[in-house]
Design goal:
Elements: H1 5-8, E1 15-20, E2 30-32, E3 35-39, E4 44-49, E5 55-60, E6 70-72, E7 75-79, E8 84-89, E9 95-100, E10 110-112, E11 115-119, E12 124-129, E13 135-140, E14 150-152, E15 155-160, E16 168-174, E17 180-186, E18 195-197, E19 200-205, E20 209-214, E21 220-225, E22 234-236, E23 239-243, E24 248-253, E25 259-264, E26 274-276, E27 279-283, E28 288-293, E29 299-304, E30 314-316, E31 319-323, E32 328-333, E33 339-344, E34 354-356, E35 359-363, E36 368-373
Antiparallel strand pairs: 1-36, 2-3, 3-4, 4-5, 6-7, 7-8, 8-9, 10-11, 11-12, 12-13, 14-15, 15-16, 16-17, 18-19, 19-20, 20-21, 22-23, 23-24, 24-25, 26-27, 27-28, 28-29, 30-31, 31-32, 32-33, 34-35, 35-36
């Protein structure tokens, strides 16, 4: 008999269940309607019962599944390093359709208004019918499309180019037809996913700049020079937060690009900050997690782990949850940084935990997906 949720609650930080795959689990699980959807380096996409961890189904692709799945309605959309985009039935995992591109695909597709948008290493952005997988259009950029498309108000915003030595381009494409509305050239590949807020596109590139572009015509509103801004910009309350290879996180005025503050960590800041209730939470390759005053950049607290922290902390119910290369998932008091619990796996934890209904779902390079009790439930 499968245990009930009450049977599993236990003390905070205790394992409710674990499910072992045959490869590293590098992406954040999606948890929808009582099911955990997650991919693995064993080339499979899994659906697990969120309460018990029992496998509901598994779908085998031709290569690693490193991207987080997107669940829309009764369909799971996911990309694989076998160069395919897959649409799977949420109930039994049967393939509804697959679409083969000419190269590795961007981390996760965007699914908007019945269309799947995905970039590929073959230099194209594809728009696919979400129901049938039929290609609606393909736009050729000529360079690797690493960033995930952002689809806002009928326009697809996406960057191309990867390396520092090659030029990059930010494109705005008509979502219906794929027609280019405008493009903006950079001196390095586009490393981050575009953020589109209040008529402005914010994006970081390998030419060591963060750009703000007019979403309507691509005109440069401002640029800010830093080291390579690997993380995607986060825009909250008129401020752009971005981490960089200069070991710093920057807060920039969203309208002007003026630097409001910067905070120097001890190594690269690879993930996007998480900003909740006036505090910015970041991880760094200096093995630490930081909480900073979002208005001033003043350090509120820091907690040192024994490994790189490259994923964004997940902040829920006044607790910051984060994984580390020291094989551990940490639950830290969001106000003080006090460790509430630490859960040890047998491999690096590189993706952000997913927290749903008092349970932390997270993958590890040890090949397991874990469900961990987040906090004590009231009687």
């Amino acid at each position: 008999m499968s245990p009930s949720r009450d049977d599993q609650d236990g003390e905070p930080g205790t394992e409710q269940w674990s499910f072992r795959t045959d490869g590293s689990v590098q992406s954040s699980p999606a948890v929808v309607d009582g099911t955990v959807y997650v991919g693995s380096d064993d080339s499979c996409m899994y659906a697990l019962d969120a309460m018990t961890g029992t496998q509901q189904w598994a779908f085998k692709t031709g290569d690693r599944v490193e991207s987080s799945p997107i669940v829309v309605g009764d369909t799971v959309y996911v990309t694989s390093l076998d160069t395919n985009v897959y649409a799977l039935n949420v109930g039994d995992g049967t393939e509804r359709w697959s679409f083969k591109t000419g190269g590795l695909n961007s981390p996760s597709p965007a699914v908007v208004d019945g269309t799947v948008y995905v970039g590929s290493r073959d230099g194209h952005v594809y728009a696919l019918d979400a129901t049938t997988g039929t290609e609606r259009w393909a736009f050729r950029t000529g360079r690797w499309v690493r960033s995930a498309p952002a689809v806002v108000d009928g326009t697809v915003y996406v960057g191309s180019g990867y390396w520092e030595s090659e030029n990059g381009t930010i494109y705005a494409l008509d979502a219906e037809s794929g027609t280019e509305q405008w493009s903006f050239q950079t001196d390095g590949g586009v490393t981050s996913d575009p953020a589109v807020v209040s008529g402005t596109v914010y994006v970081g590139t390998w030419d060591k700049h963060v750009y703000a572009l007019d979403a309507a015509d691509g005109t440069e509103r401002w640029s800010f020079e830093t080291s390579v801004p690997e993380s995607s910009p986060l825009v909250v309350d008129g401020t752009v937060y971005v981490g960089s290879y200069s070991d710093a996180v920057h807060a920039l005025d969203a309208a002007t690009g003026a630097e409001q503050w910067s905070f120097q960590a001890g190594d690269d800041v690879c993930s996007s900050p998480t900003v909740v209730d006036g505090t910015a939470y970041i991880g760094s390759r200096d093995d630490a997690v930081y909480a900073l005053d979002a208005a001033t950049g003043t350090e509120t607290w820091s907690v040192r782990t024994d490994g790189d922290v490259i994923s964004a902390p997940t902040v829920v119910d006044e607790t910051a949850y984060v994984g580390s290369f020291d094989d551990t998932v940490y639950a830290l008091d969001a106000d003080t940084g006090t460790e509430q619990w630490a859960f040890r796996t047998d491999g690096d934890v590189t993706a952000s935990p997913t927290v749903v209904d008092g349970t932390v779902y997270v993958g590890s390079h040890d090949g397991c997906v874990y469900a961990i009790t987040a906090h004590q439930r009231p009687e």
